[in-house]
Design goal:
The two termini are 57 Å apart. The chain is extended, with a radius of gyration of 35 Å. The chain is an alpha+beta fold. α4 links the parallel β6 and β7.
Length: 653
């Protein structure tokens, strides 16, 4: 396979030029080349579209150093390699200072191919570095005000010119969660920096203070693990994140962040270190007596396999200095898509996919250098903690490494959902509560006409209903997921229920005409009428809400074999194709400009899906962006339910 290469050759000898092109072809390059001999021709052909410049050091009226200056004047990043019959060390150094990628002697022309490959890789690295630095600058500007911690325990401190930085009397806000993590009731912990420092473990104080000072004075990211004393005098391991704001003079004005309880992880790490130490001790004991090496090794491997087999959702493996796996055990092998036969005797590059093998190899080499590392990897749609540990002999020499993995997918997902829940609840609950409080205070503190009072009370009633509906959605979804919701099944005509929900639709700013399409005969379903009322209410409400410009809404119902299919169609904003697979997930909301001002929690469609599927039904959607959406759900008929034997109250699972 050849690589296209645009080359400009500064050379007055055609034979030397052809020899250069021959060496490039040997390296796998297909050159699109141009040979020039004078400065004028060189200037005319130097552009940023070139991939490579090859130049003889000395020509009758031109030389490589002058050619380098011309390239630099054009401010282009094109690798420049000097090819000369002879060149002194001083001249070579001067050329490298001026930006030459390499130099070589013509009687060693075979170096040209590798030198070209190296120069092109260096150019690619420079380009990636510039791109990365630009992205980093943009990211820092965009997120300078964002908190870099979690939502577990929040703190916020304001700096004042009246007090030195990190003075014990600096005022700090500690969230209720921060205080409860340490066992305090809200308001018990104090509101000064001294309260925090007093709880720091004696061994961690200098390190935590240094991390604060490095962030505030040098803007080094603040992320540190340390121990805090709780109210009952125990110590809690936490990881702290934070971000400061600086004024134009570079002085910090404010810093906010969070702490997260990582005691469980620390305990797991301690357990792994203990297991590692025990295994290492056993290995050292094996090396003490050469006559018993084979027997000791067999016993150690037996103990190791027993440890691995009882390692929950994990893998324990040994690897040698060639990064080749010598032994692997554990219940987590299947989760990684690996078997003993596909890992034992294989190298890292042969076992892991290319996208993560480089990272795994880096951690293993660190272990073979005597360093313990912990990192996260994503594989087979799961997240794993990967521990790499050195194994040493009786002389303290590292002779091999041990790898342990632990599946933390569930824990990572729980943390993500918790953060989503807190964000949504804080926003959706705050909005109606703000209205309720504001209008209540107005009515209490000022006199208004009866008409104005009625207007305010109507708003209060609407916001109260909104708040109650939000809370009910949360509770219903939790009951459904916990399997505590009972369906009260009965036979009813779904046409009547649809008419009822349409008639009770609240008025909107944009008038929508609702069309009902039913057969003349009844459509009897076997379902919980109240829950299906909830399904219809959600779908009709969405059809109105996501049709801000009005338009007709059509509700159809018909029998299809052993089920009744109901559809609600609108002519609203529609749904992007890539959002449809996630549409019925908890807390998911479509991110598009047309809907950013439309409120919601992302629970309604999740609730619809749970209810319909609990009835042995189906739910799906068809949509075209900008033209509208049609939501469908199906319910079993009385006949279909009888065939399945579904005639008792069922618990949602």
């Amino acid at each position: 396979m050849t690589t296209p290469l645009r080359v400009l050759i500064l050379e007055d000898q055609e034979d030397d030029c052809l020899l250069m092109l021959h060496e490039l072809r040997r390296e796998g390059f297909l050159a699109d080349w141009q040979r020039v001999e004078t400065e004028a021709d060189f200037r005319a052909h130097v552009t940023d579209s070139l991939d490579l410049i090859l130049a003889d050091y000395s020509l009758p009226q031109f030389d490589a150093i002058r050619a380098l200056d011309v390239r630099n004047e054009h401010d282009i990043d094109v690798p420049f390699i000097i090819v000369s019959g002879t060149i002194s060390e001083e001249v070579a150094v001067e050329c490298m200072k001026r930006g030459a990628a390499d130099y070589l002697i013509k009687d060693r022309m075979r170096r040209l191919g590798p030198a070209t490959s190296h120069a092109l890789r260096e150019k690619h690295l420079r380009k990636e570095k510039r791109r990365t630095e630009a992205a980093l600058r943009e990211s820092e500007a965009r997120f300078a005000l964002a908190l870099r911690g979690t939502n577990d325990g929040l703190w916020d401190m304001q700096f004042s010119s009246a007090l030195p930085l990190l003075h014990s009397q600096t005022p700090v806000y500690y969230s209720p969660r921060f205080q409860s993590l340490l066992g305090y009731q809200e308001g018990e912990f104090g509101a000064r920096l001294q309260s925090w420092f007093d709880c720091l473990h004696q061994e961690d104080r200098a390190r935590v203070r240094a991390a604060f000072e490095a962030h505030l004075q040098k803007q080094i990211p603040y992320c540190v693990e340390y121990r805090l004393r709780t109210k009952n005098n125990n110590y809690l391991w936490v990881i702290g994140h934070g971000q400061a704001l600086w004024d134009d003079a570079g002085c910090p004005t404010r810093m906010a962040g969070s702490i997260r309880d990582v005691s469980e992880r620390k305990q797991a790490e301690a357990a792994l270190r203990k297991a590692h130490d025990e295994l290492e001790l056993r290995v050292n004991e094996r090396t003490a007596e050469l006559a018993h090496v084979n027997e000791s090794l067999r016993k150690s491997e037996e103990r190791y396999r027993n440890l691995a087999q009882h390692f929950p959702n994990g893998v324990v493996a040994l690897f040698d200095r060639q990064l080749r796996y010598t032994l692997a055990e554990g219940a987590g092998l299947a989760q990684l898509g690996i078997t003993k036969s596909t890992i034992e005797g294989k190298t890292v590059a042969e076992v892991w996919p290319a996208e993560i093998s480089e990272l795994v190899e880096q951690k293993y080499r660190a272990a073979l250098a005597g360093e313990e590392t912990v990192t996260e990897i994503s594989h087979q749609q799961c997240t794993h903690l990967l521990y790499a540990l050195p194994l040493t002999n009786g002389n303290g020499e590292v002779y091999a490494g041990m790898m342990m993995t632990q599946d933390i997918t569930a824990r990572t997902e729980v943390e993500r959902l918790k953060e989503e829940l807190v964000g949504i609840v804080s926003h959706e609950l705050r909005t109606p509560l703000t209205s309720l409080r504001g209008f209540s205070e107005l009515l209490l503190n000022k006199q208004f006409s009866p008409e104005q009072q009625r207007k305010f009370l109507t708003i209060i009633e609407q916001e109260s209903t909104r708040l109650a509906n939000l809370i009910n959605d949360f509770l219903d979804l939790r009951r459904i997921e916990a399997g505590r919701q009972v369906l009260r099944l009965d036979t009813f005509d779904i046409r009547a229920l649809i008419r009822e929900r349409v008639d009770t639709l609240p008025p909107s700013d944009t008038q929508q005409e609702v069309t009902l399409v039913f057969p003349e005969t009844g459509l009897l379903v076997w379902a919980d009428e109240e829950r299906i009322r909830q399904v219809l209410a959600n779908l009709l409400s969405n059809a109105v809400k996501y049709s801000p410009n009005g338009g007709a809404i059509c509700v159809e119902a018909s029998q299809d074999g052993g089920e009744v299919v109901v559809s609600v169609a609108d002519h609203g904003v529609g749904i992007p194709r890539d959002a449809i697979p996630k549409l019925f997930s908890k807390f998911f909301r479509v991110n598009q400009p047309q809907t950013k001002n439309i409120g919601g929690t992302g629970l309604g469609l999740a609730l619809v899906k749970e209810i319909v599927e609990a009835h042995q039904g189906r739910v799906w959607v068809e949509s075209e962006l900008g033209k509208g959406s049609t939501f469908f759900f199906s319910l079993p008929t009385i006949v279909a339910s009888a065939r399945k034997g579904v005639f008792v109250s069922l618990a949602l699972t």
